Amino acid sequence: MRDAVELEALxxxxxxxxxxxxxxxxxxxSEGIGQMSLPIIVVPHPLGDRDLAVIRQYGEDIAEQCVxxxxxxxxxxxxxxxxxxxxxxxxxxxx
Length: 95
Description:
By secondary structure, this protein is mainly α. It has helices spanning 2-9, 23-32, 52-71, 74-81; strands at residues 16-19, 40-43. It contains 4 helices and 2 strands; from the N terminus they run αβαβαα. The radius of gyration is 14 Å and the shape is globular.
């Protein structure tokens, strides 16, 4: 994520792709490094135990989201991602 922050500072568009299990950590890190509007695409977790056709579809969906983020003006993305919340998935919540 630090690389993404450094590239964004140089006006190079970035997108961070992370699974739902690690999205809350990504949010904490982005806040800690002062980049609350860093574009983060969250994908389902885990991917490895799924049917090949499902994985292919996820890949196409993720690629589509990445293209959208990489071609959207930075100010628009900042508004979209600034206050976005990434709660812990129910599977990792304490019982």
